[in-house]
Structures are given as C-alpha cells and as structure tokens.
Amino acid sequence: MRKTTLAFLLFLITSISSLGQSIIYFNEDHTEVMDKNDAVYYANSHIGELENEKYKHTTFYLDGTIYSTYYTKEKKRYKDKFGDFESYYKNGNLKEKGVFDASKKVGIWHYYHSNSQENFSYEMKYKEGEFEETTLFINAWDSLGNQTVKNGNGQLKYLTKNSFYQEGMVKNKLKTGEWNGTYIDGKPYFIETYKNGKLKKGNSWDSEGKKYSYTKTYKRAFYPGGIWDFYNWIGKVLRYPDDAKKQGIEGKVYVAFIVDKSGQLTEINVVKGVYESMDQEVLRVMQLVKPWSPAKKRGQKTISRMILPISFRLS
Question: Is residue 22 pLDDT above 90, yes or no?
C-alpha cells in the first residue's frame, strides 16, 4: 500500500510539473515539425534555462535521453549560439563538442565514435559573403584508435546525424577525390567528387533508388523570382492596421514558417512581434503566399524552417 501511494504521488508530481509545457519536435535537420511521427528530437520549451548570464538549451532524443546542450545570450533557442556545445549518442557517450561564437564554430572541434574513442578533430573556415563554410580535417582515428588522418592527410570515415556514413580521402585538411555515402543499412546514399574541399559534382539516391544530380550539398528554399520579388509582393498586399497607424507604431515583425517538400508554407507563427494588429496582419498575408521552391539536400527535396522580417514603416 505504501509503495502504491508513493508511486501515485510521483505520478501526480510529474503530471503537474509537465502542465503548461509545450513540447517542440524536430526532424533530423533540426527543423521544427508538428507531428511526432516525423520527429527525431524534441525540446520542452523554446525558452532556455538561465545559467551564468546565458540561456542553456537542451534537446532530447524521443526516448528522453539528452541529444545536445548549447547556450544563447537571449532566451529563445533560435537565437545565435554562444559558448560550449555538446552532443551525445543515445548510449550517453559524448558525440561532439566545441565552442560557438555568434553561431559560428570557432577553435578546434572534436567528434567521437559511439564507444568514446575520438573519431576526428576539425575546424571551420568561413569566407566573407559565402553561405557555405569549409571543414578543415586535422586528425582522425578509427573506432579501435588507429590513426587514419595525420596533420590533415589520410582516409576518413564518420557517421553523420546517426543516419549515414561518409568516407573518402583528405589532403591538406580538405576533402579530395571521390567520397561515398552509405545509409546505416548499407544501401548507397551518394557519390561525390571534391577538389581542394570544393564539391564538383554529386549523385544521390533516395530510399526507392531514384537518382538525383547536384553541385551543392544543400540549397535553401526560395521564393520564385527571388527574395526581392517576395518583398515587393508583400508591399502590395500588406495593410497597415489603422490602430497602429494612428498611434505611430512602426517596427519589424519576425515570422517563422516551414517550407514543406511541395513548397507550401506551413506552421506560420510570429516569433518576435511589434503590436497585436500588426502581428495578425503579417499572419494573414503569409497565408496568401504562393508556394516556394523547397530546399534540397543532395538534390533531394526536404522541408526547411525560415524566419523573415516584415517591416511596417510610416512615410
């Protein structure tokens, strides 16, 4: 009887503590999704826990084990990352660690095998004005501790996002020659050719064996005609709310949305508002936006999350 009562109290405490929490689900690419069946990870809140003047954000696997922790200077998890980052395998062993500065990886990062043996060390090279960064591989080891890359030269194999392996040669810290990707079950995912770290061409295959060709591993979703056509269209249909206009209220409403594989905009919400009627007007207009061209990962359509500012200015 005593054990039953204790179990009931623990259940009650857990239930009460979970009230008001709004679980957020994410797919493999950390894009927010509504359906748990499409998710790989989750978080208990968009708001981090205050710790040493920064906000700590924790992401979990669906079974409740910790996937990653990172920090932002502002409350919400989609703000720029600053400070220590760590991710873990489902068995609890460290997977990756390093330091962020304004969401850029700085210094030497370390990636591990699931048995805790270091897999490789690397650093990121950023070029002004370019969206994609370059990975510089320094040293690497197989799961038994045998070194396969030394001082930026050798053979490297590693597991990406718990879903596929990629393997190829590294020369002067850069990918070179042919790289192969295989799914966990051994089926081919991609074959890519690199020169001095730059992708020259690639072919990938989906789960049904359909082939895709590409020259960029990732292409962001875009509005037909480009972002300026999008804002020109917004300018034509956006109405300045009378109450906000009378009070002289101006500002930028930041709206988040998902571009699904068909290009449709879904899960539209205001992440940083200005004034209620202005926020609602942005939501109204975004419901009218025509389909975008969806993002592509290795030539294959994928869903993506975007955040854009919509400005209200009084002339």
Answer: no
